[in-house]
Amino acid sequence: MSYRKSFRLICGLAGGSVAVVLAAAAADSRGYFGEQRRSACRGSTFTVQAAQPAHHAATPTGHSWDFNWDKRDPSALTIKKKDSMTENPSPEQDNSKPKATRNILLIRHSQYNLSGNSDKERMLTPLGREQAELTGQRLASLGLKFDVLIHSSMTRATETAQIISKYLPGVELSSCDLLREGAPIEPVPPVTHWKPDAVQYHEDGARIEAAFRHYIHRADPKQKEDSYEIIVCHANVIRYFVCRALQFPPEGWLRMGLNNGSITWLTIRPSGRVALRALGDAGFMPPEKLTRT
């Protein structure tokens, strides 16, 4: 068949077929086809490639950071005066602004006796006591000036804190019922092996949220120096605190796992910004000492 006859034949195709041919040619010119195939015409090759998905950058969710998440943003606490718009704020306004950074180190209790029928019987195992010793050594090695060591009133957290405190002489030790273990909020996705009833979520959730509001917030304006505080408590409490502090959906708390005796480090800036410096750090323990009970 001559070239002219071939051209007439192509032009005689239905309009839709021509559109398909033209579209294929355009796609080929843009590199959408890449897989090489052998043509029946004179042994030449042409490139055919499966269409590649477009590469899209992650888009923001639309949820902006709430700088007044702890209700301590100075701009929300004080009434703006005429001179608040000037470059030189009044001494009263300047004194209302936090200047220090709070560092909160959340420690999960060590391994304990799971077969205990009451809280008093759920004391640390021999391995749990070793884990607490290692955590205390790790905290001491950081060379930080710790201001306080607060712990849950449950036996396993109390014993863990007491062992840690041996390595931090002079640090005040105190107990708090708000930090007890519980069910903070129904997790998403749900799990089958753990299903507290609605009453437990209602009661524990309110208590653990109260603990979050009490302990996790920016520094008071009167605080002059950065602080380092240790809180020894439980996995559910720590995971919930992390989600709330980072303004992540709190129902995702059960998607994280924490080893016994691990260290989670939150930093809260005067501006209200929050950073997670460590989550469940247990790298200071030998592998054979790691547990997650």
From TrEMBL:
Residues 79-101 are annotated as: Disordered. Pfam families: His_Phos_1 (PF00300). It catalyses: O-phospho-L-threonyl-[protein] + H2O = L-threonyl-[protein] + phosphate; O-phospho-L-seryl-[protein] + H2O = L-seryl-[protein] + phosphate. The keyword Nuclease does not apply. It comes from the Eukaryota. SUPFAM superfamilies: Phosphoglycerate mutase-like (SSF53254). Keywords: Hydrolase, Membrane, Mitochondrion, Mitochondrion outer membrane, Necrosis. Coiled coil: none annotated. One of its GO terms (molecular function) is protein serine/threonine phosphatase activity. Its EC number is 3.1.3.16. InterPro entries: His_Pase_superF_clade-1, His_PPase_superfam, Mito_Ser/Thr_phosphatase. It is found in: Mitochondrion outer membrane. One of its GO terms (biological process) is positive regulation of mitochondrial fission. GO terms for cellular component: mitochondrial outer membrane. Its main location: mitochondrion. Belongs to the phosphoglycerate mutase family. BPG-dependent PGAM subfamily. This is Serine/threonine-protein phosphatase PGAM5, mitochondrial. The lineage of its organism: Eukaryota, Metazoa, Chordata, Craniata, Vertebrata.
